[in-house]
Design a protein that fits this description.
This is N-acetylmuramoyl-L-alanine amidase. The chain is an alpha+beta fold and 489 residues long. The protein is built from nine helices and 22 strands. The strands form four sheets. Strands 1, 2, 3, 4, 5, 6, 7, 8, 9, 10 and 13 form an eleven-stranded mixed sheet that branches. It has a seven-stranded mixed sheet with strand order 14-15-18-17-19-16-22. Strands 11-12 form a two-stranded antiparallel sheet. Helix 7 packs across helix 9.
């Protein structure tokens, strides 16, 4: 239960669009301090918040984000600069399950350590300090693209799944030597000047409640009809966007389906001739090399609030390569919670980080379940925001979890192999082969350079990053050979 002693906080409300508003309204969100709290809800316009126990009306989409500005922390080490450590003291907050830290400039990296402690809502027990992955800038849209230059994008850590919680404490400490040093010419000669803060400006703690999926309708059309009845003079954005997302998978599953069923090898080959007929080579027509289509949970299946993302779909030409990632969100989830984890990451990517949609094209949980990521159709070459500089003509697959020292499950590795055997097979790509991608810049290679990569690559193959974690990266050889076998190679 939330504390009744907490003072009222000031909460500017964000709208459904991936932009922030500055209209402050008061809310009764309980905190032990007077820290301002920004609440992200999918409401159409700012409105005074009701007590947290109020059930959401049927027209409202689930989930919310509390955004708390970080403050300088006092520290016994007086040699630290005043802004070398920021955070928030332990305090009560509304329920959340996923945390991350964002800041103003996406081109500025956080050189330091971010740690959080959370209180389990069910037991009232506080966790120990948990590290949040700060190396997240490489998961992004390509430089100079409309998504990257929208003016909404913010710097951010990776999100961390902590489970249902109602209390939080955070500390962010800059690495030693994180100050920006420059040499200035003066009348007395050159001198070294320490400029700016060692930590990014505008840091905020994002507390994401993924909510629960909206009540299922008999189909998406019924949902759209209900939305029109609730707001006859306004476009039912969420319902119509859900129609679009479902229609993008037409031909693969019934309209409004929560999953796309798996097919046999022969069924998949027949489907290939239907989906990709104009672009197939003579060899592909004669002897298709494609793995059986796996079962895929649709966005409707994991409960995506379609009003959060941008309505338009953006495509690339084809899928020549697959980049494997880990979400770095921790391994403390059950497979039944995976849809909630994905809803949390989706909300964090769009409303906290300012992206147009979730960045990954697909996600895989520890049980090997495969989920549709960015909207636009699972069989189509949807442009993602997953591998900085290499999003064009590729797809991004993220395994839910952190795999620096933890081994991925055999089911997750098999899920990647099944997915890549099918999706790469749609475009005639050999999972054991090599391909060339043109760098968009911002990574290991200059913009415009043609880079030879494995058809199934790890994120670290295109960027100086630990992603997808060593324990998952070392499994990619097995993934390539298994996927090729599924394709009949």
């Amino acid at each position: 239960m939330l504390s009744a002693r907490a003072p009222t906080a000031y909460a500017p409300t964000k709208t459904n669009a991936p932009t922030k508003t500055n209209a402050p309204t008061k809310t009764n969100a309980p905190t032990k301090t007077n820290t301002p709290v920004t609440t992200t809800t999918p409401a159409k316009a700012p409105a005074p918040a009701e007590p947290p126990t109020r059930p959401a009306p049927a027209a409202e989409a689930p989930g919310s984000t509390q955004s708390l500005p970080l403050e300088p922390l006092t520290h016994p080490d007086r040699t630290l600069a005043p802004t070398a450590e920021q955070g928030l003291p332990r305090q009560d907050v509304r329920h959340f399950s996923l945390v991350g830290v964002i800041w103003d400039d996406p081109d500025v990296e956080l050189h330091g350590r971010v740690q959080v402690r959370t209180r389990a809502a069910a037991t009232g027990t506080w966790s120990g300090w948990q590290d949040v992955d700060t190396h997240n800038a490489d998961h992004a849209a390509d430089p100079d693209t409309a998504e990257r230059t929208s003016g909404r994008v913010r710097g951010a850590t990776a999100p961390l799944w902590v489970g249902d919680s109602d209390g939080v404490e955070v500390r962010v400490r800059a690495d030693a030597g994180a100050h920006d040093h420059r040499v200035e010419e003066t009348a007395r000669g050159p001198r070294t000047v320490t400029a700016g803060s060692p930590l990014p400006s505008g840091m905020r703690l994002e507390l994401v409640d993924p909510g629960t999926p909206p009540e299922a309708a008999s189909d998406v059309t019924a949902g759209a009809a209900r939305a029109r009845a609730l707001a006859p003079t306004a476009e039912p954005v969420a319902a119509l966007a859900a129609v679009d997302a479902s229609a993008a998978n037409a031909g693969l599953a019934p309209f409004g389906a929560t999953e796309i069923p798996e097919l046999t090898r022969s069924q998949t080959e027949r489907e290939l001739l239907t989906l990709e007929a104009p672009e197939l080579t003579r060899e592909q027509r004669a002897k298709p090399k494609i793995g059986p289509r796996p079962r895929i949970v649709t966005r409707r299946g994991w409960g995506a609030n379609e009003s959060l993302r941008e309505r338009k779909f953006v495509y690339t030409k084809k899928v020549k390569a697959a980049f494997v990632h880990h979400t770095a969100s921790g391994n403390g989830y059950r497979c039944a919670q995976a849809p909630s984890v994905i809803r949390g990451i989706y909300r964090y990517h769009v409303l906290s980080m300012g992206w147009r949609d979730i960045g990954y094209n697909f996600l895989v949980d520890k049980c090997g379940n495969i989920y549709e990521g960015r909207a636009g159709g699972v069989a189509k070459p949807v442009l993602g925001a997953h591998t900085l500089g290499f999003n064009t003509n590729s797809m991004g697959i993220a395994v839910l979890g952190s795999f620096g020292s933890t081994k991925p499950s055999a089911s997750a590795v098999k899920g990647i192999a099944r997915l890549t055997a099918w999706k790469l097979g749609l475009h005639g790509a050999n999972p054991r082969g090599k391909t060339y991608l043109k760098s968009g810049g911002g990574n290991l290679y200059r913009k415009g350079k043609n880079v030879r990569l494995n058809v199934i690559s790890g994120h670290r193959d295109g960027f100086p990053t630990a992603c997808p974690g060593w324990q998952l990266y070392r499994k990619l050889g097995t993934t390539r050979s298994t996927a090729a076998r599924y394709q009949g190679r």
